[in-house]
């Protein structure tokens, strides 16, 4: 069935992390590995795989001309009905963008193909610039407080109109499952990486954590407005104390979870340091021995330094680096980095020295055969 999914966000000149974010976003959504079509009106388009092309340059220029606290663009991502044809989906996106810019603002949309095993995951990334392309005046008011609700409502209306025109019975519904009378639990957004893992038939740790969190009985959050009674001052004080105590419990639980997460990460960091040190010890001796006897070397005489052994140690080093990289975010402790850096630098040097010690297999193959142990 058709799925209702609308995500709205904004890029502001004063709130973006770095200048040119809007142009970089266009570059990303028009990448050749995902986009199948790019539509645009009243602004330059971007060819697929062109890193944003003329559209990116134009947005950078518009951003420079905007006031310092102005909104550069509004970003919208929508799920496209898989019941429609490619042409019908393109028409739907165009009609919706024209409505959200009143036919006077600039917009660009990149339509993405389904990825993985789900052939229904058609979606579009839309960039809306809420300024008249001739006068520069605001045309719709997408920075207003109620603009997100307007976008969500209009997408529902346009998508259902397109489904009806195509003779499809499916419809999308922006209401919550509870308002629709549905008893099933809403899904959780876990991202493309987790989805890819599960499509391979593997279990994702993120999914396990989400399921566990949902299975726990969570108390209904208390709101201050629910606890205060204007006609009973004593009750007000009592309930306010209860609300404050509840907030303190939440903060204490959050702090405990943070401490447990740090403890878990520190345990993993100590494991990596230990394994890296042990790997360096296992590699250092054979490499130094081989370098001392380099003029008489013969790979058949060196069990630890044959190509398979070297390959295994390189793989082991790569896995250690990947695990270490995962623990770098959000911020790795300086003390851990100070311990880890010299060990990894030593390992990197040992890996390079090992590779240089291996004979060229094509050039040395006959010599190795001649010098191999006699059976």
Automatic annotation (TrEMBL):
Pfam families reported in the protein's UniProt record: MobA_MobL (PF03389)
Transmembrane regions listed in the UniProt entry: none
Residue intervals of the MobA/MobL protein domain: 63-200
Cross-referenced InterPro entries: MobA_MobL
Keywords: Coiled coil, Conjugation
Coiled coil, from the record: 240-267
Family: Belongs to the MobA/MobL family.
Full protein name: MobA/MobL protein domain-containing protein
Lineage: Bacteria, Pseudomonadati, Pseudomonadota, Alphaproteobacteria, Acetobacterales
